[in-house]
Amino acid sequence: MAQCAQSAREFIQNSFGPMVAVLCSHDAEVIAQKNNLTFVEMARPFCRLTTEAHIRDPQGQVNSIRNMRIILNDMNSQPPSSAIVRKMLNDVVGSIHPNAEASKSIITAGNYNLQLSSSTPWFEAYREHFLQVTLPSEHEFIRHFIACMLVVSSNHADPIDQFSKLNQQQHQLQHSSGINNPKWLCPNIFKYYILLHDNTEGEEEKAEAVYQSMKSTYGSHACHLLRINSRSLQAAEVASIGNEYTANMPDPWSQFMTNNSVDTGADQVEMDISPNVDSGGFPDKVTEADPEHMNDPTQPGEPFPGDDDSPNGPMPDTNPSHPLSQPNEVVSHPLAVGHETNESQTIITEDNMDATDGNNKDIVLNKLVGVHGACLTLSDHDRLRIFIHEFVVRGLLPYIEKMIRTLSEQLASRKGISRSFISATKNWFGGKRNSDKANKTQVDMGGKYLRESPELQMRRLGDLAFLVQMYELAYTSFHTAKRDFNNDHAYMHCAGALEMAATSAFMVGSFNKVYPSHYMDSAVSMYAHTCKKPSFATRAILLSTETLKARGMYGEAAMEFIRMTGEDSDLRSALFLEQGAHCFINMKTPMARKYAFHMILAGHRYSKAGQRKHALRCYCQALQVYKGKGWILSEDHINFTIGRQSFNLKQLENASAAFKHLLTYDSRQPAVQQAAFLREYLFVFQQQMTIAAQEGKPIEPNLPQLPLPIINKVATKVLLANAEQPTLPDNKIAATSVSFDQLYDSAENDKWFELEEMVVKVANKSALSTLRPSQKLLHSRTNNSQRPVAVIREPITVELVLTNPLKVPLMLCDLSLLWRFTPLDYEKVNNETPEKPPTVISNENICVSPKMNIANEMIRSQIIPEFELKANEIKAVQLSLTPENTGELSIMGIVYSLSAPLQSTSTVPPSTNMEITDSPSLKHSKKTGSSTVSVRGRQDVDVQGPRLNGTLMEKRIVTYGPDRRLDPIIAPPMPLLEACFVDFPYSLLCGEIGQTILEVSNKGDYSLHKLYIASKQPQCFAFRSPNNTDIQSGPLYRTIPLGDREDVDEHVVNVQNLSCVVEVPLPNGLLKPGCSASIPMWIRGPEKAGIHDVDILFYYESTEENFKLRHRVLRHSAVLNTTHSLCLKATATRGHIPEHNQRNQSLVVSLQGENMNQVHDRNITEFSLEQVTCVSKTWALEHIATKDKQEFKISGGESVICCLKAQHCKQICTSDSNQVVFTDGVLGKEKIVSYESPCSDFFFRSKFKLKEIEPPPQEFSRTSNNTKSMSVKQSLEGALEVDLTLLVLWKAFVVDETGVSHKYVGQHHVTMTMLDQQISTIPTAQRMVEQKAVRFLKDIDVNKSDEPSSTVMIQLIKCSLQHPDHKDHDFTKKRLCTVPVTLHLCNCTDKTLSIQVDTDTAPDNTPSMDTSSGYYVTPKPPNSSDFVWVRQVSQQLELSGNSSHQIHLLACFSKAGVFNLSNINVNVTRKSLGLEGEPVEQKKLLPSVITVSQTTNN
């Protein structure tokens, strides 16, 4: 971010200081010229006070003055002419250019990282010189002379007489009516008399005598004896020859002589020296008066300001005879539009701008550059400091103090002025801040005030107060004066008062007071529009922007800069636009786009002003924002301008790069303009090659790089296979393998790698230490750190995405891949000679050497004769290579001939007059009337790898890893597997079983074996026995006639080992080259409706050993579309508890089948349940008798519920055995053999997804209590477990849209693991469980992980009631009716439980959670309050494991009605289970209703 070297307060203090005129006699100038300096130049570096001074305000308060600076000016000097001013300002800006090594800062503004210069010295130099050449005006006194120094040498014959003559000369110049310059603050200014004494040549006694006479005549406060030249001129010359002076003496004049080297016409001196000048060199005799004892010095013969009552009429602001007759004229650049002076033609030429920038300084008069102050010693430097210090402290400040006091008294005595003072003070300290705006439609009526008028006196008071840093008094004076000026329509004076009032308010330094920015706005408007004084408006803008920036108001400062831009001055507009841009970027939230926009405007105005280097710099700075951000047209304009400027400056490299950017992205230019861009680039490119050849620079031997078309290098893909799929009949589908059209999914890619790892582990009987996943398709998202492996005589296809950014078509001719190949024999590695390097073969020089027979023998390249890219077209091109030898291949890029439309040769840019020579890379068509140009070139495809972020060093430094997708290794021959499926069923019902044939063939050079198939969905397919190859013969399931026996047949079947990897049976265990085999398969639709992807990975190995490639894989993704069929829901509950044999328990299995086919479905489906098979190690289904063997048919939208009974099977298998029992429940007319393929195969494969990971072994550090609690938990949970699977076989009758009927078969599996838990083949949405209420009491810390779940704990006891369902009673005879009720309790666990039975509990309205539904339920009271339990209302007993108990209860009723007897609470204490906590309430009894009727006796 560009920042000024000075702060705002320093800038304002340096801009305004007391103006002091200097009038020297000739003999005094001679003494000063010994140091190669005038007297003004000699005193210039010492014109800033290095100590603090004091002055009293009109109220007597002491004010401190710090860092005060005075401005010395030769009284006889004349201001420069307007032409010199314009040229001086232009040269000042043009002579300063940004240094490439200068410090630059990088800022981040949103998504932009901008590199900006830390400073703008050209603007600061312009500002400084602009303020120097600004002429004083009648509407203000701040730049009028306030004092005059009269300098006479002690060598003069009569110094006192010379002082009198100088005094008269000054008086005559001041009071002459025909001279407007210089201007004086008041008629009687302060005069200071200086006697200049040469220490080496002057007489000391004479000097002392004259000085004493001066003090008696003019006063000691107005006289000074200045001794200089303590070193003789001869000694100084000797020291300068020996370089002793430059080595030991400082040169404080060098910076001032350099800064004013172009300002000979303007004698005004702006003194600026570092405030940290050592003040220790002051002698002890230099003292300052105490502020409380400061006396007002009087000067004989000089009345106070205001005593001179000679009227001064209104003085005009201009003098027609003076060169600078219009002091407020806006200076325009000589090259500005509409400027017609002849001077502009001699300043800057059109051919060479750079030379004139350095030579312009010679046009303006320069100061002599040599040794300055050679006769001055360090003591003389101290005397100069003392001289300035005494002049200010003893003479100038007391004079100003007295003048301020006198003006204040005079103004206060006038009528109405005091009220203006009070009103102004009120406005400053909290009053109204609204200022009166100037009426732009009126004419300035000011300039008619007398010099002694109260308005001008008030302005004079404000200027004096501002010069001595009494900013509060200055603000009050300016604020009062601006009202009077505004009322009198003196808008020039009003604008000046507003300008200084705002500046004074800022210099007060109180941030609690709001800065009156509207004052400065009004001042600028009055200057620019009402008074037509743009030079003063420019000065006001310079002051205003600095104050706004100091207060952090960068947005307002930018607006101030922009408002002063216009067509009158291109240089000023360019500088202000650039500063406005920097203000936008310096805001709290940087506005990068506004910064760039105004930098573009600044560059344009710099170009109009003839400042080409600054214009080019602005465009380059703006390009940082517009580049790559979608601002297409703006970026085109910037690049085109940079290209043209660089071409005119003979910077062809930069011009070529700029024009190249016009062709590298989507352009919105019209087609004609884009064609012109392309021709300009080709022309510049050719000129660059021609000049390089003429200068003898080495030309690139290979083909040149071309910018079109654009290659999306990141999208480059490499396929290690043939991109074309084989043509097959309609009933066959080839394995999908990989292709360019597939979208990359990291999760899916990891899934394929995991399948490959599993199959490799199975095929090799163990996991390989280093397994490199097989990748046939390589792109930007794959791991390309290692070189891929291709197989000899198999094609390698590369897909490149080409983009034509232009609206004109491009034609690429003879397009092919550019490669480099190193042949290596991997089978004979040991015979390779290590000393002989391998031969590298390439097709790079194909245009130079047409004989490429060796390259064609090694690599067969595909060549596309013509490849057309239409306007703005993005098109992928696939180029292939077929290696004929083993080795290492590197694909470097593409080579082609680029053709573009070309108009007539007259359209070649006229700015270039170089002759176009013939080149092998630039070819014109020889046909008559042809308008195309063809350039032969190349483009490299250097793909950048991923950024490394593994180590700490890689995180600190941006480092990219290798990307070797284009560097394959060519391995020896391998087998090549091709697979296809015949009549593959794409659409299935959920659970439907279809049939297909898998055909495999070997297209490689070697035989393959170890053919495996790996899939994450093994439940979807199964292979038929290889002996039965005809899958179309016979039904899908084997059936047997249904006999008359009603006993249950139990078939024990060994459990199949489930795995994701299946070996495919091959004839003789291998497949020879050119042979094929057919394998039958079953496909079962998943039970969830929708689209399913079934991924199958084929794995095979070569019978011959290959060190580069051990195995190969083939991928296939099958898509199955399943529709709704049946929804089966099953629940297993405990059956009736036998009274004598509690262990012979049974299960009641409720099976519900629902047809999910809806009316709006396209197909009409009807299902028939054929058979229900139970598969378990413990349970077996009893035979179910159906009436006349009636089938269970379910139409659309219907459901069927059937109850089945399961008992312990006869052949009970142990839990650790590898066998299960199949028992069939036939619902149809014939029995299906469910324990054979494919029924049993799909059953075992359905278990694959339910297979859980075995828990890790328990640690030996567990305590005995934890072991006991875990055993209790397992025991209790085991009591509710049930291992039972229902295998439901069904048939479906489907009528499609065309009315054709189809018959399908399928099967569903319903696995039940827990009692009283409903299992559905279609998962249902889970109900939301309400969160428990927040408790503020600390719960008892119980280890919940060791306890069984709440579902298990509430089902430890099975309860049932036994009672009559109807009771008749005559309540007229007997008021109470009693009914006996038996409560059956059964312990479902093998643990002894402590049970509490409570029948006399009051209704508890506390909500409790229903575990089945997940909601809180509030218990309801009994239906009648007349129903109570009698006898034992509360009992406690212990029930041993797997035993039952009966409790006899008695219910008493007082009236007739219907009563629910299930309000009995059964609790189990945790203590009986070895657990801690409150008793657990068992599952609520089911509603048990009894009806009590009233009987009457007739």
Give the helix tally. Answer: 31
Overall 3D form: elongated
Q: State the total count of DSSP E strands.
A: 60
Mean pLDDT: 77
CA-to-CA gap between the ends? 116 Å
Main β sheet profile: 8 strands, mixed
Give the helix/strand class. Answer: alpha+beta
Rounded to an integer in angstroms, the radius of gyration calculated over CA atoms is 53 Å
Range of strand content: 15-25%
Task: Describe the secondary-structure layout.
Blueprint: H1 8-15, E1 19-24, H2 26-33, H3 39-43, E2 53-56, E3 62-65, E4 71-74, H4 82-94, E5 104-109, E6 112-117, H5 121-133, E7 145-153, H6 159-174, E8 190-198, H7 204-218, E9 223-228, H8 233-241, H9 244-248, H10 254-259, H11 353-359, H12 378-413, H13 417-428, H14 454-467, H15 471-487, H16 491-508, H17 517-530, H18 534-550, H19 554-563, H20 570-585, H21 592-608, H22 612-626, H23 632-648, H24 652-661, H25 671-694, E10 710-711, E11 717-719, E12 732-734, H26 746-763, E13 777-778, E14 789-791, E15 796-803, E16 810-823, E17 841-842, H27 853-858, E18 859-861, E19 864-869, E20 874-883, E21 887-901, E22 922-924, E23 932-940, H28 952-956, E24 969-971, E25 977-982, E26 987-989, E27 993-1002, E28 1008-1014, E29 1021-1023, E30 1039-1041, E31 1050-1054, E32 1061-1063, E33 1070-1071, E34 1076-1084, E35 1090-1102, E36 1111-1123, E37 1126-1134, E38 1146-1155, E39 1164-1176, E40 1179-1181, E41 1192-1194, E42 1199-1208, E43 1219-1226, E44 1230-1232, H29 1239-1246, H30 1264-1280, E45 1281-1295, E46 1301-1314, E47 1319-1320, H31 1350-1353, E48 1357-1362, E49 1366-1369, ...
Parallel strand pairs: 1-4, 1-7, 7-8, 8-9, 14-24, 26-36, 49-60
Antiparallel strand pairs: 2-3, 5-6, 10-15, 11-13, 11-15, 12-25, 15-20, 16-17, 16-19, 16-21, 18-20, 21-23, 21-24, 22-23, 25-27, 27-34, 28-32, 28-33, 28-35, 29-34, 30-44, 31-43, 35-36, 37-38, 37-47, 38-42, 39-41, 39-43, 39-45, 40-42, 45-46, 48-50, 50-56, 51-55, 51-58, 52-53, 54-56, 57-60, 58-59
Helix pairs in contact: 1-18, 4-5, 12-14, 13-15, 14-15, 15-16, 16-17, 16-18, 17-18, 18-19, 19-20, 20-21, 21-22, 22-23, 23-24, 24-25
